[in-house]
């Protein structure tokens, strides 16, 4: 009997607590209600920070399903409006931009640029400028610096790029630029303008011969087009009974000759047997190291980071070279025949927000990948 009495008392106490909780939750002066009430500005700030690190649209705060979820967790939360969220996001963008600009100013290395043209479904073109570099901690960074609408004027691309470099004050750190395959004449003119500007601030390697890096996806596309044209020509001439191609015969004769290879071996032997050789350089020591066995998950960045104390000069060179993008598209996009389109979430945010969203997300998501 005493046990039953104790259980009844415990149940009665639990019901009173539950009743008190309901009164406090719903009452105007309830303790729980006061604790669950949130500041609208603070909520917008935290929501904007969350959107920075995701691919969610700003319009999510108007989505009925999202609102139901939030109000289920806390009926007192105030999300504010899309306008408030945009204003808070722009604040974060400006704050982060100052930090990113300082990181680039303090960077003890070179920056490679990639320039891509993105399109909206309405066929508006946007120029996306991205900085690629490896920071002092040997972390690969890919930060969008600018996303802006491009008009039809021929000199607009170069003007946009010049303004971008000036705004970020990185003219003296640019080492290469990779562009998509547009008009060759337009690309060459744009690259020349940029190279002239950079050379006013610094000396480029090999007098700028390596400044323009051609997108490998575009090179592959051109190779395929040329090959198909050659095949079509051969197929067209196949019925004519033409003899072997003279050009191929010359190539065959060159391959059969061992003269060139023998000369190279002789020169190498003379060099290695010379008694007046200079002391071994850092490069000599690197080349004498045994070749690392191939493994599938070999990380070249991690290897150079670990070897930077042994080969400090070569490590600096490797850091700048490994940051150069060889393409501005993914392996999947390389097979698309149409221009890449901008994310619909960015388009829905409005033209005034697209650049801020794309830039900030590239900065914040890069940090989250590191973590």
TrEMBL record:
GO terms for molecular function: protein dimerization activity; zinc ion binding. It comes from the Eukaryota. PANTHER family: ZINC FINGER BED DOMAIN-CONTAINING PROTEIN 39, ZINC FINGER BED DOMAIN-CONTAINING PROTEIN 4. The lineage of its organism: Eukaryota, Viridiplantae, Streptophyta, Embryophyta, Tracheophyta. Residues 282-363 form the HAT C-terminal dimerisation domain. This is HAT C-terminal dimerisation domain-containing protein. It is found in: Nucleus. Keywords: Metal-binding, Nucleus, Zinc, Zinc-finger. Signal peptide: none annotated.
